[in-house]
Queue: 2 jobs
Job 1
Amino acid sequence: MKRGVTTDGLAIRVLGDVDIRVGGRPIEVDTRKALALLTYLAVSGTSASRDTLTALLWSDLDSNRGRGALRRTLSVLRKALGNRWLAVDSDRVRLETDAVYLDLEDARRLEETVEAHHEQSSELCLECLRCLERAASLYRGEFMAGFYVRDAPEFESWQLHEADRVRRRHTSVLARLADAVAARGDFARSVDIARQRVAVTPLDEAAHRQLMTALVWAGDRAAALRQYKDLVRVLDEELGVPPLPETSALEERILLDDIPEPPFVASSPSSGRQTEPPPPSDLVGREKEIATLKRLAEGEGGRVAVIVGPPGIGKSRLAREIAEWARARSLIVAESRAYEGEERLGLVVIGEALRAALDEWDSPPPLDPVAAAEASRLVPGLEGAGGQPPPPDPGGQTRFVDGVCRALSTLLGENGLLILDDLQWADEASNDLIAYLIRRGDRFPFFRLLIWRTPPSGRHPLTALVEQQVASGRGAMIELGPLPPEDAERLARSSRPDLPADVAAQVVEEGEGNPFLTLHLLQTIDPDTGLLPATRQSETAEIRLRGVSDLGRQILAAASIIGRAFDPFDVRAASGRSDEETALGLEELVAAGIVTERGDGMFDFSHDIVRQHVRDSLTAVRRRLLHDRLADHLLRLHGSNDAHAGRVAHHLEEAGRLEEAARFHARAGDHARSVYAHQEALAHYEAALALGYPDVVTVQMAIGDLQTLIGDYTAALDSYRTAAARADGEDLALLEHRLGVVNARLGRWDMAIHHYRTAAEGLTDFDDLLATYVDWARAARGSGDDAGARQAVAEAAKLAEASGGQPPIVAIMEGLLSEDPDAGEARALEGLELARAAGDPMAQLAGLTTLAQLARRRGDHPTALERIDAALRLVSQIGDRHREAALHDLAADLHHEMGDEDKAMEQLRQAAALFAEVGTGDLEPAIWKITPW
C-alpha cells in the first residue's frame, strides 16, 4: 500500500479510531458494516469470496438474505468510493491496495526497515530512530478503538485477534524506542515512552522494569521505587501473584544504587535456572503394531484402527509414528483430541479435526456447497459454504452428519489419515458422527485411527462397531500393554547409554513396562549418587517439574486450567503475563519436555499425567482466579459467538460467576441443539437451570423437545409439565400441543386429543394452530375415530380458508380421510402439487406416502411401490433416516403382500440397517407416524 496519500486518494486509518477518507474528506456511507467490510479488505490485504464476507458480517441471516445484504453494501461502498479501488466480480471482492494508504501497513514497513538494518548492525542508527518515532506516532490508540458492529460475531472475533496483534507490535516499538532515546541520553523522553508502554500493557513486568530503570537514569530514584510498589499492588489485585524474581532483584539494585550506567541494552528476563532437556527417545518394542497400522493405512476403502491402553503406555506416541510415516509419503494427516471436562461441548473434537485438515492445505480443494454449509456449523466462515447452513429440521441431523463427513473426506482424500485421540472424553454427538464414518467406510475411504484409554469399567461406546470392522478384515483393535523387560531395557539404554547395569535394571522394574514412567524415572536419577529414588507417576510428575522457574510454573498453572491444547494468547490472558514473559515461559517448558509445540501454533502438555498433577496442585483460590481471568478473556474474544458459549460457561462456573455461567450454558444448549448434539444440549440446559437461569419455561420446553427427539418420553412429559406449571398464555398453549405430541407417540390417543383441544383454545399463531389441528386429526385417526379426524381436518381447512391460503398438508389429510377413494386420490394429488409448488419437501413426502397408502388400500400394489420409490428418492435428499427406514418397512409389507419374500426381506434389512444407524430412541413412533399416511 502507498506510504503517501494523494489529494484524491483513499486513506484508511485503523490505529485508534477508524478514519476513512477519500481526497481528504470522510467517506459517506449509511451503514457501519460498509466500513467494517472496507477495513477488513484493507487489513487482510487479500481478496475474499462473497461467502466469506457474508459469513463474516451477516451470519445472523440465511444465505440468500446475507448475499443480498452484501450486494447492497458493495453498491453503497462503490458509490462512496467513486467506483475506484474496489474490485468486485461474480465470486470475489478485493481492494486494490497498491493505490490505498493504510496506517497499519505504514507502521509495519517502518518496523521492517529497522529490523532489516538491525540484522546488519547491532547499532540503532539515527535513521532507524526516526523510523521508530514515525511508527510510534502512527499508533493513536487501540486497533479500531470504539468500533463495533452488531450481529457480526465472526467480525468481532477477527477484530479482537487483530487488536491483540497490533497491541504486541505497538509495545515492541515503544520498548525499542525507549531504549534508543535512553542510549542517546534523553532520559526524560525515555521515561515518557516507557510510561506509554506500561499504559498499553499494565501487567507486563518487562515494561515496568524498563520504566523503573529509565526513572533511575532520569534521576528520580524515589519514583522508580514507587513504580515497583504500584506493580506489586496491581499484580496482587489482578493476578494474586508476586513480581518475578528479576523484577524484585531490580528493586533491590535500585535500593543499593547498583544500576548500570546508560546506554541501557535491554536483555530478556531470565529465571537464571536451567532445565536439562529430556533425553531422546525412539519408539521401542511396537514393531508388530506399527506393521498392522501401516498395512491398514495402505489398504483401500474406509479402514479403522483403535489403539487402547492405560495412561502412559505409548498410545499417542504410536499414533505419532504413523502420522510421521504418512506425512513422509505426502499424505494429508488431520489430528485432533478430546479433553477431560469437555464432554458437554458437542463435537469439539470433530470441529478441531476439520480445522486441522484445512490447515494441511495452502489452497484447500473445493468443497461441495451443501457439505461446506453443514461443516460451517463447526468451522464458521468455511470457504465455499455458500452462506449460512439451513436451520434445524426433521431431516437435518443426518444431512449435517453426512455433510461434515463429506467435507472431511474431500480434505483428507482417499489415502489421508484422521487421528482422534483421547476419545474416552469425547461427547456423545462426536461418537455418533465417528460411528457414521465407520459404518459408511466405502463412501469415506480415508484411514481412521482412534485412540482411547482402557475404560475402568464397561466398554467404549464405539468398541462393538470397531469389532465388526475387525471381523470383516477392515479394522484392527490394538490393545497396548506394558513393554516386555527386554524392550523396556532397550528404551532405557537408548535414552541413557551411560546408565549402569544395576540402575537400568531398577528403572525397568520400577517403570513396570510403562514408557512414560520409564522415561521420567530416568530424569529422577540423582546426578551425584546415580541412584533412583522410589517413586510413582504423581511423584514423578512433581520431580519432573523440579528446576522449573516461577514464571514457568505460572504458565503451567494457567495452561492446566484451560484443560485442552492451548494457544499462547489464552495462557497469557489467564496467567496475566506479558507477551515476552509468556514466550519465555513456554520456551523453558518446551525445552524441559513438559510442554510440546504443535505444528498449528498451539501448545499442549507432553502428557496428561503432568497436566492433572499441576491442576490438582493448585489451591481452590488460585484455580478460581485463573478461571476468572480466562473467562474474561474468552468473553472479550468470543462473547457473542455461541459456538464458544460452552467453553465460556465452564470457566465462568469454575470462577464462581454463576449468573453469567447460567446464561452461557443456555446459549451453549442452543448451539449444541443446532448441530444436533442432543445429549450435550440437554447437559447445558440442565446446568443452566441448576445455576438459576431465570427463563425456566423456555429452557424446560427446550429440554422436553430434546427428550422427545431421543425417545425419552417419560422425561419429556415431566419437562413439559414442569414448564406448564410456570407458563401462561401462548407459551402454555404451545406446551399443551407438545404434551399432545408425546402422548400420541405413546399411543395415548384420548390424552393426546385432550391436550390438542386445550392447545387449540389458546393458540393464535396460524402455523401453530394449523399444526395442532393436523396432529389432532392424526391422533383421532390413530384412535379409530375417523369422524373426529375429519372434524379436526375441517377445522384446519376452515383456518386456512380464513387466512386466504391453502396449506398442502390440509389437502393431503383430506385425501387420506376421504370416504370416496377416487375423490381422496384426487385431493391428495392436489395437495402433492401444492407442496411441489411451495417447495415444501416434508409436505411432498407426506403426499407421496399418503398416495402410496391409498393405492395399497385399493389393491394397486405396483402403483403404491412406485410412489414409495419416489418418496425414498425424496427422503434421501432430505436426510431424514427415521422416515427413510419407515418407508423401507412399508415397502417390505407391500412386497410381502405381493408374495415376493426375497424383496420383502431386502427392504426389511435396509430398514433395520437405517434404524441401527440412527439409534433406538424413537423408532416405533417414527414407523406409526409415517405408515398410517
Job 2
Amino acid sequence: MKHRLAVPPQELRRTWDPSALDFATTAELPELEGLVGQEQAVRALEFGLSIRSPGYNIYVAGPSGTGKTSYTSQLVRGRAAAEPVASDWIYVHNFERPDEPLAIALPAGTAPTFAQEMEEVIHDAQRATGRVLSSREHQNQREELMRRVRKHAESMMEELERAAEDQGFGLTQTERGLMPVPLLNGQPMSEEQYDALPPEQRRERSERAQEIQRAIAEATRRTWEMERAVRAELKKMDRQAASQVVSPMITLLKERYKAIPRLVEWLNRAAHELIGPSIPDQSGPEDMEEAAAADMRIMASRRQIDPFVRFRVNVFVHRRSKNGAPTVIEPNPTYANLFGKAEYVTNQNEDPDDGFLQIKAGAIHRANGGYLILQAADLLSSPYAWEALKRALIMREARIEAPGQENRIMPVETVRPQPIPLDVKVILIGSSQIYQALYAMDEAFRKQFKFKAEFDVAMAVNELAVQGYATFISQVCRREKLRHLTADGVCRVLEHSHRLSDDQTKLSARFNEVVEVIYEANAWASREGSDLVRGDHVARAIAEKAARSSLSEQHLLEMIQRGTILFDVAGQVVGQVNGLTVMDLGDYSFGSPSRITARVFMGQKGILHIEREIEMSGQIHDKGLFTLTGFLGDRFAQDKPLAFSASIAFEQTYVPVDGDSASSTELYALLSALADVPIEQGIAVTGSVNQRGEIQPIGGVNEKVEGFFRVCRLLGLTGRQGVMIPKQNLPNLVLSDEVVDAVAAGQFHIWAVGTIEEGIEILTGIPAGQREADGRYTPGSLFERVDRRIEQLARRLYAWNRGEENQSS
C-alpha cells in the first residue's frame, strides 16, 4: 500500500523549463496591454461601465494585490477620455435669499473666464461710474439742483424770520434747534426785562412764541421733505448716469452667455444691483453729510465689507481638460472630501453676502458627469460619508450640508447652497466580504450598486497566461528601472506563483507579492554585480524573505529539539498519531505538528473530546468529531451498540482548535486504540473524513508537509518518515526544493490516500479488512480487531450492569 500510494517526486511541484520560453530575457518582450489572467473580471467591468442607467454603479470585488484598483483606474480613464466633457459649475450670490447661493452650470473650461469677466465688469463699473459722475456736465446738474434747493431753503428762512419779526420775535440757533427770542426795540430781551413785563403781556408773548414754534416745526418738516426729495433726485440722477455706462457692460456678458438662461437671469439682477455700490459717495446738504458720518462710525465697529462681494463668482468646479469626462480617485473619502464644505457663519457682524465664496467642492462634484472611484473599506470607516453617498445617488443630486446637522441640539448656522444635479458613476473597490455584508444588510446598496465585477486570486495556466506573466515582469522592470530577468529567472517566478496559489494548475493573481519578489531578486543581483536577474537570485529572494519571518517557527523547532514539546518521529505507539496544523502569522505561514492521542475504556459516554469539553474547539472541529461517531456506527454498530467511551486530545495545545482537517487523524488514533495496534510515529497525517470513511481535501497542505519535514530533519531522517495527505490535494502540492530532493533520495515520503482503509494500512502495516458474508470482517484485519474489541467492551458493560442489578436486588 505504501508503494502504491506514494507520490513520485515529479508530482510534488510544478516546474518550468527555460528553453520552453521564447525569449532569453524579459528585455525582449513588448509592452503589456490589458490585465493578465482576469478575463472574466475585465469583461464584466467593461460591460458595467457601458451601462449609464440609474443604479448601475459598480462594485469591484476581490482580494488585495490582484491589480483591481490600478486596472480599474486605467480602464475608467480610457473610457472617460472618449466621453463628452462635463460642465463647469459656479456658485453666485442669491439676491432673493442670500443664505441659499445659486448653482449655475457653464460650458467646460469657461467658469474661470466668466469669473474674470465679472471682476473686470466690477472694476470697470467703478472707474466708468466715477468718471461720469465727476464729469463737469453731471456736477453742473447736481450743483444746479443744490442751488435751487438752497435758494428755496433761504426763501423759507427769510419768510419765517419776517413772520417772527411781525410778532415781535427774532430767531436764534440753539442746541435744541431754531428757537424764537422776544425782542425789545429790535434787540433780544434779557430775562430781567421779560420778567418785568406785566403778566398779560407775558401771556400774550408766550402765545405768540408758541405760534412761531409751530411755524418753525412746519418749516423743519418741509425742509426735511425737501432734503429727502433732493437725496432721491440726486440718487436718481446718479443711477441714471451710472446705468448708461454699466448696463452696456452687462449687456455684453448677457449676449456672450445667452445660451445659459439661469446665468442671463442672474446677470439681469446683477446689472440692477451693481449700480448702487458703483456710485461713489457724493457731497450733499450738511445734514446728509452728518448722517453719512454717523453711518461710517457704525461701520467702523464692524469688519471691512467689500460692497462688490455679491457680484463676484465662486468657481466651484473647473474642467481644466476639455477632452473627456472626469475620473476622480478619492484616496481619503471623508465626508468633507467627498461632499465639500461651506464655512460656518458664526459672527452676526460678518457679512452674510460672501457665504457663497466659502463653498468648496468635494470629489463627487469634481466627478460629476464622469466617474468616482472609492475604496469601500475607507468609505465605510468615515462617519456620515456612506449614508450621504447613498442619499446623493438616490436623489441624484449633490448637496453641501454640515455633517451630522440633524443630530445637533442647536444647529450651526451655515449657508445652504442649492444642490447640483448629479450624474456620476461610482466604482467601489473592496473585498468580497464587504460586498456580501452590504448586499445582505443594506437595501440601498443593492439598489444603487447593481453591478459587480469580481477579480480572482488565481488564473488558469495556459500559453496566454504565461506570456502575459512574463510581459508583466518585463513591464515592472522597465517601469521601476530594474534589471531584467533571464528566462530561468522568469521560470522561478512562475514556480513561486504556483506556490502562492497553492495549485499546480494555476498562477497567482496577487501581483503585488510577485512584484516584491522581483524587487528583492533585483537587489540580490545588484549585490552580486550581475546585469540580469537569474533564477538563483529569485530563489534566494524567496528564501530570504521566508527566513526573515520564520522566528516563531524556529522557536517551535527549538522546543521540539529540547524535548519541551513531546514529539516522536520514529517508533510505534498505540493510539497516538502526529497531526498537522498551520500557524498563520499574516506575512508567514508554517506547519506545526501536534501529537493527537486516543484512549478507549468501558462506558457509555461515547467519544469525548477534551478540547470540546473545555470549550477550546470551534464549531467546524466539533462537526468533524461527530462525524467520527457516524463512521464508527456505520462500520461497527450494525449488530451491536457502540457501548464504550473514548477520549481524544491534542497534547500540549494551549490555543483554541478549529477546522476539521484533523478529523481523519483523530479517527486513526481511535481505531489504533480500539484495535490495540501501534501506529508509525514517523508518519504525519492531515485530511478530514466523512461518515463513509472518505478522505476529504484540506488547506495549507504545503506548509503542513514542509513543517513536518523540518521536524524530521531536525530529529533525524530515517527514510521511513513522511506525510499522508488526501489524494484530492495532489494538484495543490508545490513543495520546496529540499522536500522534493529528500523524496527523490528516498529519505522522505508523501502518500496520497482516498479512504480511511488506505490510510490505516499505511500507518499500521495491517490491512483494514472487508466485511464478509457472515457480517464479520476479514480475519486478522485491523477492522476485525476493532469490531471484536467493541463487542468485548459492550459485553463487559452489559455484564457489569447485570452484576450491579443482582447486587442491588
